[in-house]
Every structure is written in structure tokens, then in C-alpha cells.
């Protein structure tokens, strides 16, 4: 092919124009120290980027971002002759946490505040964002921040706007969210009263969500002045960033601003190109139009995809629990209303199974919310795997799952289903190098005829669940009308409980603990009792769970500890001899930061020698920080205080903590002792517990010994001590005398081997 002279001239002119249009960056003047530092870190400077649409930063694909801030950083890369390493964060709060921990070197966009200057240096401001007040339409015509006193106001977590509102409007209830999309979603459904955001983001998210009930009603009074932040333990890096930013020409900055802040400018014809001739101008215009079509097509596809994803997510979250993926309470209530309107008969009716995880709060308290969330996700998946396709599984509470199903009104079938679900939950859970098991309890309600209020069926299942947890945790119970009467009684007890602690209605009784081979009394267990002026004696199995639920168990436990120590000292002064007085300690009481100090204060106030005190703890305490538990127990054990494991074998049993922690006594649960002479399984459990306790040099005491045959068998198995009605019932302190102790010893004849 022959190339004419005219064509060559045309190509020459075109190449010259392209070269002329290429940006030219002036070389930076660096100190020797800066040059050396830059050579050492040329490929290792990490820039943290959070997605803040619509123009500071946007996702452009997998692990890629684009936007005004990114264009600035790329220009600065060229000026410095380096390549930044970008780390993308899902939200701004996560990025700022990484900056505080210095796991990133540069923050892509940040407003200078006093708190942040403790760990960041800042460049000159390169962009501004004006914050507006968004509310639902009709809420305000005009508003100021002071109008939101006592109201909920959503702001992205860890932004400078959070500190501004806290310092200037402390009466506002701040709701910190991960990102503005979450903030506008909450505002749209009325869960917050206002949102603080820059206008462009508000427009973007309301369009994405298809929300038209939101409007701008005023200015927040605080604007973002965007700089680049860098870790302040690398001051040279801050200087390099500032030099690179300052080196950008006004034309380069305007080009970035036009591209992102004023995208319509890209549609204007650059008048300077006219001087290069009509042919070149037309050719360039064609290229520009072609590029615009490509970019517009990509942008349109991206926007459509984003909108579809946003709509899909909003639709999903409307009826699903975000953590577990199961249906949420709203969906369950709507479905329950539909189901209960269907004909109810013996062949087909609506049934509710409410499952509650036992002691789930201990997981969050001792292992943190992350593990708690993992457990809930695993439980949801397990339950779903055991249900038929027509069953509706929903998470209706923090640790509760509800199964809604249409079945024949057959209690046997429902019992089998509930047992299968409980068994599935009870399977061990592995998390990292840890493994543990939970139990679950279920309440079941069955629709009987027409229901005017569908929610009543759920309330009945809830009553059955609470009754089952009191009577037999780890099992299930069907609703009965008597439970509603019991609920009213519990509400009355709830109201009376706080008053009882301040009006001396609580007192202690003491049950002797004896040597099984001789009947000699060696100690006492202090037991809390409540004598209500109207209701009379309230059983412990009623008021202790109530105290746990209402947060009064610590106050009650502290009182029992002091009263027991005072009584023990009084007995010693009267000449009554005993080895130890045992006091129960709840989990919440034990994990108090000043628990050890409270024990020492009780001993000091009462005058009881430390070696006379025994603290009974349950195995659930060791779900938590064993190091902290060991530290607390060791501190008290060094003074002579003894620790025993109460109800051993019914909780989170582990040989590890028995070996590691200073425990000197095991108390076998009375549930095993009562069946020991007839039930082979109970006998084997008792034998194994005794062997384990003795191997670890521990004393073993059996609770609930009521029959002579049980005492004899336990003595043959080398169980040292016992406690129960066979020896003596719990008695008031004034009935515990030396004569009584001799009567107990005489009444229990020594067991003599044949």
C-alpha cells in the first residue's frame, strides 16, 4: 500500500497534537533524606480507601476503585515516581480503625480534627463536602441541629461529623451506622429522625433505593474539608505527599474536578482544539464521542446493576434477619396472621415452636459478639436443615428462633419434631481451636379454633418456653392455660423483688454437710430464703431466676455472702466447730471486676477466718476467660478460701479447667444421686465423676441424699461427703446447735463393710 505525502503530513500533525496534549509533570525537589526514604518504600506505601460515592471513591470492579480522590492519588504517584498499594474498606469506620492501628500508611480522604492529629499528619485540603440535614418529607420545612434534641440522628461511624455533634449537640441521640446507604434506609422506614450527609450522597442513595419520601431541610453547620492523612510516626511521608499535591497544576486539578464534581463539563467542546484545523477537530470530536458512548454505556450498566442489587438487598432485609438469613419477626407475624385465618381442625392447624438457646448470653459475655454471631448463624443453618419446605423458620429474638408450621393437632408428632430440633442444636460447635455445646429449650402452642388475635399464639409459646426453662431446661413443654396465671404471679414477684432486698425479707437457712462413713457434720451450705409479708415463703426456684433476669442477682449474692460470714463467725464464738460454710456464687457475681475485694470485705466485716469459707461456683463460669478466672481464684485460695464446683456434670464440663484451676471439691448434682440405686446410667456417671475427682485430689460431695441405700452405695464408692434430707433439712441459724450436730451424727450409723 502506498502512503501519500498528504497522508504522511496528516499523521505527523496528529501525532504532534497528541504529544502536545500529554500532561507534563515538573520534577519534585526532594531532600537527600526524602529521596533515601522514598527509595526504601517505593512499592510498600499502603493507601486506605473507603467507598464514598458518588464522586470521592466508587467501586469499579473487584478490588478496584475510581473517583476524585483516586485521580489525585494517581497524579501524585506519577509526581513521586512510585506505585501506591491500595486497601479497600467496606466502610469509613473500618478504615479509620486501621489508621489508628497503623496498619495502613495513608488515608485517602479525611478531615483534620484534634483527635485524629494524635495519629495522623494532614496535607493541604484538596476537596470540600457540605453536610446537609435530611429528614422524611413532612417532618420539617426547615430545621437546625438543635431541633433534633432527644431524637435519633444517623451519621456514618468514625467520621468527623460524629465528634462535632457529640461536642455541640450532646442531647441528640446519635445512631452510628456503617455507611450512608444504611443511614438512608433507616430514615426511609422511620427508625431515625434525621441523617447528616452531603447532598450528592443523599441524592445517590435515595435514587438507588427508589425512595421519594426524603428531603433536605437545612445545613448541619459542619463541612468536610478533605485532606490526605498519613501516619504521624512517618513525618517524611507527610512531607512527600504535600510536595506531590502542591506540584499538581491548576489545569490538572480542574480536569479532575470537571470529571467528577461537574461531569456535564465533559460534554463541552474544547475551543482550543479549533486552532488545529477542522479535520483534526472533527477527528478528535469523533474519538471523544466514541469514548463517551463507551463510558456512558459502562456507567449505565453499572448503575442498573447497582440499582438491581440495592433493590434486591432492600427487599431481602425487609423480611429476613441480616445476621442469620432466616426470616425476621416481621415476616413471621405476617405469615402467622395468614395461617391463623385458615380453617383449624384436628387434621390441620397452625402450630408454633419457640426455641430458646440456654445460657447463650454467656457466649457473648465470655467470648465476644463475634463468636455469638457465629453460633447464631450455625444454629439457623442446622434448624433449617431439619425442617420441611413448608415450615417457616424465623429469628424472633436475640437467642430465640420460631418455627411456624401447619400440621395435624397431634402432640406426639410435634414432640418428636421439637426433640429433633433440640438435638440438632445440642451437637458440638467448633470455632477455631475451641469446641463446646449448647442446649436449647422449646415452648409449643397449638391453635384451637378461631383466633381474634394471631399474636396470642406466639405469646402462648413464649409462656411455655419460660415455664420449660424453669422446670426442665433442654426439653420442651406445651402451652397450658395455667401458665397465664403463672405469668401474672411472676409479674407480681418481679415488682416485689426489689423491695424485698431493702426491707429485710431475705434470710438464710443452713443445711449440714456430713461425712458419709460416720455422719459427722463438717460444714454447712448457706441457702437464701424469701418470706414475703403477703405471699409467704417464696421458693428459691422462683425468685432466683427472677433475680437473674432483673439484674438483682449480684445484690442478692453479695448480701448472702455477708450474712453467711457473719453467722459463721457467730457460731465459732459460740464454740460450734465446723470445717467450712459454703456460699453459692452466681456467674454475674463472679465476673464482677471487684468480686475478690467484696469477698475480702465480707470476711473483714464479719471476722470469719478465710479458711472457714467455701465458694460454690458453677461450670458455666469457665466458658469465659480462664486466665482471669484463675487469677481471681488463686488470689482468694492463697488466703485459705476453698472453691467447689456446684451441680457438677450438668453444665459445660471440661477436664481442662479442673486441672488448671484451684478447685478442691466437686458437688455431684442431686439429679444423678436420686437415681443411683436404680438407674445404671446415673451410677456410671457418679462412678466416673468420683474417679476423676479423686485423680485430681479433690473431695467429692453428693447432693440430695435422701435414702439410706444411697448413702451406703456412695460410701462404698468412696464418696467422702453427702448432703440431703437423710441427714438434715435446711434450718434457721438459731436451730443449728452442738446438740443438733450430735443428733445428726448419732442418727447416721457408720457403714461397716462385711
Q: What kind of oligomer do you see?
A: single chain
Q: What value does the average pLDDT take?
A: 85
Biggest sheet record: 8 strands, mixed, barrel
Tell me the name of the CATH homologous superfamily of the largest domain. EAL domain
Give the strand order of the largest sheet, numbering strands 1, 2, ... along the chain: 21-22-24-25-26-27-28-29
Quickly count the domains. 5
CATH class of the largest domain: Alpha Beta
Specify the structural class: alpha/beta
- Annotation field: number of helices: 26
Radius of gyration based on Cα positions: 36 Å
Number of beta strands: 30
Residue fraction in strands: 15-25%
CA(first)-CA(last) distance: 122 Å
Brief write-up:
This protein is α/β, with parallel strands linked by helices and 754 residues long. It contains 26 helices and 30 strands.
Amino acid at each position: 500500500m502506498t502512503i501519500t505525502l498528504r497522508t504522511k503530513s496528516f499523521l505527523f500533525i496528529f501525532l504532534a497534537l497528541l504529544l502536545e496534549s500529554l500532561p507534563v509533570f515538573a520534577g519534585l525537589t526532594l531532600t537527600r533524606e526524602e529521596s533515601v526514604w522514598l527509595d526504601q518504600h517505593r512499592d510498600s506505601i499502603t493507601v486506605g480507601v473507603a467507598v464514598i460515592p458518588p464522586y470521592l471513591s466508587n467501586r469499579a470492579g473487584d478490588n478496584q476503585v475510581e473517583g476524585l480522590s483516586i485521580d489525585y492519588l494517581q497524579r501524585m504517584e506519577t509526581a513521586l515516581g512510585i506505585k501506591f498499594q491500595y486497601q479497600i474498606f467496606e466502610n469509613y469506620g473500618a478504615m479509620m480503625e486501621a489508621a489508628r492501628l497503623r496498619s495502613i500508611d495513608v488515608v485517602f480522604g479525611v478531615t483534620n480534627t484534634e483527635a485524629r492529629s494524635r495519629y495522623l499528619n494532614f496535607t493541604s485540603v484538596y476537596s470540600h463536602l457540605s453536610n446537609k440535614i435530611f429528614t422524611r418529607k413532612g417532618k420539617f420545612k426547615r430545621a437546625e441541629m438543635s431541633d433534633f434534641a432527644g431524637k435519633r440522628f444517623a451519621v456514618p461511624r468514625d467520621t468527623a461529623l460524629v465528634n462535632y455533634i457529640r461536642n455541640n449537640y450532646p442531647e441528640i441521640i446519635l445512631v452510628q451506622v456503617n455507611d450512608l446507604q444504611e443511614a438512608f434506609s433507616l430514615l426511609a422506614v422511620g427508625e431515625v429522625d434525621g441523617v447528616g450527609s452531603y447532598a450528592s450522597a443523599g441524592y445517590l442513595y435515595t435514587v438507588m433505593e427508589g425512595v421519594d419520601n426524603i428531603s433536605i431541610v437545612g445545613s448541619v453547620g459542619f463541612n468536610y474539608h478533605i485532606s490526605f492523612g498519613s501516619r504521624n510516626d512517618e513525618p517524611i511521608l507527610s512531607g512527600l505527599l504535600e510536595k506531590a499535591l502542591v506540584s499538581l497544576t491548576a489545569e490538572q486539578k480542574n480536569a479532575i474536578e470537571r470529571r467528577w464534581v461537574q461531569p456535564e463539563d465533559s460534554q463541552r467542546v474544547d475551543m482550543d482544539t479549533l486552532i488545529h484545523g477542522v479535520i483534526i477537530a472533527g477527528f478528535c470530536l469523533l474519538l471523544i464521542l466514541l469514548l463517551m458512548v463507551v463510558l456512558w454505556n459502562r456507567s449505565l450498566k453499572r448503575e442498573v446493576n447497582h440499582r438491581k442489587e440495592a433493590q434486591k438487598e432492600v427487599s431481602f432485609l425487609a423480611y429476613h434477619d441480616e445476621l442469620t438469613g432466616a426470616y425476621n419477626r416481621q415476616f413471621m407475624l405476617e405469615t402467622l396472621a395468614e395461617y391463623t385465618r385458615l380453617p383449624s381442625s384436628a387434621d390441620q392447624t397452625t402450630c408454633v415452636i419457640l426455641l430458646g438457646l440456654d445460657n447463650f448470653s454467656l457466649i457473648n459475655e465470655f467470648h465476644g459478639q463475634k463468636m455469638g454471631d457465629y453460633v447464631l448463624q450455625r444454629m439457623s443453618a442446622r434448624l433449617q436443615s431439619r425442617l420441611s419446605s413448608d415450615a417457616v423458620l424465623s429469628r424472633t429474638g436475640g437467642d430465640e428462633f420460631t418455627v411456624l408450621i401447619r400440621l395435624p393437632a397431634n402432640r406426639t408428632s410435634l414432640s418428636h419434631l421439637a426433640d429433633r430440633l433440640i438435638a440438632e442444636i445440642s451437637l458440638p460447635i467448633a470455632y477455631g481451636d475451641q469446641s463446646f455445646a449448647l442446649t436449647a429449650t422449646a415452648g409449643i402452642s397449638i391453635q384451637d379454633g378461631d383466633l381474634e388475635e394471631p399474636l396470642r399464639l406466639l405469646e402462648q409459646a413464649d409462656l411455655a418456653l419460660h415455664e420449660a426453662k424453669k422446670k426442665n431446661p433442654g426439653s420442651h413443654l406445651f402451652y397450658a392455660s395455667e401458665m397465664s396465671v403463672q405469668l401474672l404471679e411472676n409479674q407480681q414477684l418481679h415488682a416485689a423483688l426489689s423491695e424485698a432486698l431493702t426491707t429485710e425479707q431475705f434470710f438464710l437457712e443452713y443445711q449440714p454437710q456430713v461425712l458419709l462413713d460416720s455422719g459427722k457434720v463438717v460444714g454447712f451450705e448457706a441457702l437464701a430464703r424469701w418470706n414475703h409479708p403477703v405471699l409467704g415463703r417464696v421458693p428459691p426456684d422462683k425468685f432466683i431466676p427472677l433475680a437473674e433476669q432483673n439484674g438483682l442477682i449480684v445484690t442478692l449474692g453479695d448480701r448472702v455472702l455477708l450474712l453467711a460470714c457473719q453467722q459463721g463467725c457467730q457460731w465459732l464464738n459460740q464454740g460450734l466447730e465446723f470445717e467450712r460454710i459454703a456460699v453459692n456464687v452466681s456467674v454475674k457475681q463472679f465476673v464482677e471486676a471487684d468480686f475478690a475485694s467484696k469477698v475480702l470485705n465480707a470476711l473483714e466485716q464479719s471476722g470469719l477466718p478465710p479458711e472457714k469459707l467455701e465458694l460454690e461456683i458453677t461450670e458455666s463460669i469457665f466458658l469465659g476467660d480462664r486466665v482471669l478466672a484463675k487469677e481471681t481464684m488463686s488470689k482468694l485460695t492463697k488466703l485459705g478460701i476453698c472453691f467447689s464446683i456446684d451441680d457438677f456434670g450438668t453444665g459445660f464440663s471440661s477436664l481442662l479447667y479442673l486441672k488448671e484451676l484451684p478447685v478442691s471439691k466437686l458437688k455431684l448434682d442431686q439429679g444423678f444421686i436420686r437415681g443411683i440405686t436404680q438407674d445404671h446410667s446415673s451410677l456410671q456417671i457418679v462412678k466416673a465423676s468420683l474417679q476423676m475427682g479423686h485423680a485430681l485430689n479433690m473431695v467429692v460431695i453428693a447432693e440430695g441424699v435422701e435414702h439410706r441405700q444411697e448413702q451406703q452405695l456412695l460410701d462404698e464408692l468412696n464418696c467422702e461427703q453427702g448432703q440431703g434430707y437423710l441427714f438434715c433439712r435446711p434450718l434457721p441459724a438459731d436451730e443449728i446447735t452442738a446438740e443438733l450436730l450430735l443428733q445428726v451424727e448419732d442418727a447416721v450409723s457408720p457403714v461397716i463393710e462385711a
